[in-house]
Each structure stands twice: as C-alpha cells, then as structure tokens.
Amino acid sequence: MRRRNEHVNPLPHHRRIPFRFLAGPAAAALALAGALLIAAVAVGAQEHPAEAHQHADAQALENPVEPTRESLVAGRQRYVFLCRQCHGNRGAGDGDMSHAGGIPSDFTDDVWTHGGSDGEIFTVIKEGVTADMQGYANQLRDEDIWNLVNYIKSLSRD
Ligand code: HEC
Fold first, then answer.
1. Distance 157 CA to ligand 1 centre (A)
2. 64 plus 135 within the same structural domain
3. Ligand 1 atom with minimal separation from the 78 CA
C-alpha cells in the first residue's frame, strides 16, 4: 500500500528531516538571542553601581520648571499612569509590578541611590538605570519629566 504522502515528498522516509530537528536549532537560536539581550541589559545594569552614588554631569542640569501647583498636578497625572504600579500610590515603593527583581525606590524617604538633585532625578527618569527602571525618553517630553521630578520630590515633604 502506498503511503499517502509518498509522492508529495520525494525524499525516502529515512532522509526526511523531522520537524523537531529544524525546530531545535531555530528555538536554540531564538533562546540565544533572548539570552544575549538579557545579558546586554544585565551588563548595562552591572556597570551602574548598586550602591548610592552621584552623577556630576546630571547635577549640573537646572530644573527649568518651578514646583508650582500646576506642575505638581501634571506630574501626578503622569505618575499615576506610568510609575505608580511600581513606586506605589503614595511613592513608598510598594507597587507590585516590578518585573526584573528590582526594588522600586521609596520617594518618601531621604535616600536617593542615583543622586537627589533635580538634574540627577531627571536623568534617571529620562535615561533609566536598570531593567525595571527603564528610561522614559521615548514616552515623555522633558517638561513632563521635570513635572515628575517636582512631584516625586514633593512626596518626601509630606
Ligand atoms: C517596572 C517598575 C518601575 C516603573 C514602572 C518605574 N520605576 Fe522607577 N524604579 C524602579 C526600580 C526597581 C528602581 C530602583 C533602581 C535601582 O536599583 O537603583 C527605580 C528607581 C527610580 C528612581 C531612582 C531613585 C533613587 O533613589 O535614586 C527614580 C527617580 C524613579 N525610579 C522614578 C520613576 C518614575 C518617575 C517613573 C514613571 C515615569 C518610574 N520610576 C517608573 C522601578 C520602576
């Protein structure tokens, strides 16, 4: 009896390449690409010191936006959409969405791991520091980021 697919595939049965052997290398290549990506992010994060430190160049940035009520309200609006899930409703670092194992900073204490000047906080938000705390340069205008700086600084004064 002829096998149904014999004339469709001219290769003798034993020379057909089973799908799983094709899937194997493809899956491995994908996994490797993924691993490399994670490694690249991890290396980036490793280069960034975990202990408290400062950034002199960022310190030199001046905040052009006064912490007016209007600025704080605008900052709060962005915060609710983009930051609250990790940094918590009141900024205490108690949101539960952190996905890469990082501990979201508490904005209500005096500790600023990456420097507490307006320019340093601005740079952290704009450029990011870890896989969890990624930069928002693509999502936020500079003015929005300064509003966020004003807002999260206001949390520690409450
Ligand atoms: C997916 C979770 C996540 C989101 C969303 C997130 N953050 Fe973070 N953030 C973190 C983590 C984790 C850290 C601590 C990074 C480290 O290890 O230093 C951090 C650190 C920071 C710091 C540094 C504080 C310091 O002590 O120097 C600032 C500022 C900050 N985040 C602001 C924001 C703002 C503003 C937003 C929203 C636009 C935001 N974050 C969104 C997880 C998040």
1. 19
2. yes
3. 38
